[in-house]
Amino acid sequence: MRATPLAARAHILAAVVCATLCALPALRPGAGIAWTTVGLLTALYLACELPGRCRLVGSSVPISAGSFFPLLLAAAFLLPPAAAALVAIPGSLVGRVEHAPARARRIWRAAQLSLTVWAASCVHGLLGGGATLGGPGPERLPDLPYALLPACAAALAFSLVLTALDGSILATAERLPLRHAWSGLLPRSLGPHLVHGLAGLMMAVLWRSSYGPVSALFVLLPMYISCWIFSQYHREHAAHRATIRALVQAVDIKDTYTRGHSERVGRASVLIARELGMAEDRLEVLRFAGILHDVGKLCVPTRVLRKDGPLTPEERRVIELHPEYGHEIVRGIGFLGEAREAILHHHERLDGSGYPYGLSGREIPEFARVVAVADAFDAMTSTRSYRRGRPVPAAVEELKRCAGTQFDPQMVRALARGLDRHGWSTASTVVTADETVPVARAGGGAGTGAVRKPVRPRSPDGPEPAAGRAVPGDGRDVAGGRAVATDGSGLASGAQSSVGRTR
């Protein structure tokens, strides 16, 4: 719990207190709770969650908690609200957690699902859903289709409460604006939760029938089929990540001047996108775009990338082909989607003086405009072996100065807001071309950190451009350790963009 922000810990504690208050009536003497039903449903949910903790099973078949929501909804239909709130707790406390801090996430999950099931059971009971489920014997058949109304209303309440709580913990733990934290959560989850509600209704009807609880277990079969489908998705997703990782490692090995740059650009791109309120399903694709924006360097001769001296005009032209090379490399990777266009166009400029096609304004794809800002920001703030990184405030001011001509002002403002809200941190060390330099956290506009010792350009050809002259671009933004200034037209010799020599 120590790694959890204070606001998130307070939020989790409040949820635990609310869940406890909701469940307390079931523990009072004379509450008339069907404890056999509570015990069986709790044991079933616990048994469904446990395989995720088993290395042998969990590693080969990742299990989504959502696959077993029908079981929780069946509890909401069969039990009074206080008793239904108890069913999810044991399974949630032992279920699989993908990310740290595991204990805080399990406690939050238990409280969240307890409150969600309680709300669904309240709605189902208010609409008289219990009387529509039928009972043992032919004289007590389920009241269909009228049983669908309270079941669907309960599933809707389940979805609303669950997504509201998901958004609230994102807002407190990640310090996101509420409208961004909740953006897209309900539309994505409402359909699946309504389907879960129908499966839960089927399970509840069978449970109440003369066949008893054993017959309701047959409803678990589609749940496990759902788990299998999720496992296929996870395997495919893991393969995607492995593909991206291999390409990025190849670029880092070839161009040692920018090691780690790609990952940071991906992270900064997502920071911008969250401030813009982009849908969650686009965020990962945008992160891929940031990570792979320089993949075209694989086609650039290594002697050019590592040249210790100024580039010739011909070598500059070769460097400026890397967006097109990158686009060709990833053309056949279907899951990258919009990322392919960002890789091709991340060196375009708003005023039309960029490359490779000289696009301007809104002709430049949105992802490319995001990556361009993230790329330049990391290039300016990263410490290389041949120069010290700029402080975060200085880099942001330089981006603002070039907004409207080189960068999209909307993207620059989004980055500034994100940095004010979250700061900018890197790993404990940054691997540069020649040495490892310690870096401190830059929060809320603080500097990017201190280096072990002053670093100097490798060549006396000239200092790095001062503010007001040029914004460094992605990658190795100086020629052989020397900065490249721009002329009055905004283009350096050899069709160089005003970002300096951007590799």
From TrEMBL:
Signal peptide: none annotated. The keyword Nucleotidyltransferase does not apply. Its EC number is 3.1.4.-. Residues 236-431 form the HD-GYP domain. This is HD-GYP domain-containing protein. CDD domains: HDc. Pfam families: HD_5 (PF13487). Residues 494-503 have a biased composition (Polar residues). Residues 440-503 are annotated as: Disordered. GO terms for molecular function: hydrolase activity. The chain crosses the membrane at residues 6-24, 68-95, 107-127, 147-173, 213-231. Keywords: Hydrolase, Membrane, Transmembrane, Transmembrane helix. It comes from Streptomyces sp. 900116325. It is an enzyme of class 3 (hydrolase). Residues 258-380 form the HD domain. PANTHER family: CYCLIC DI-GMP PHOSPHODIESTERASE TM_0186-RELATED, LIPOPROTEIN. The keyword Transmembrane applies.
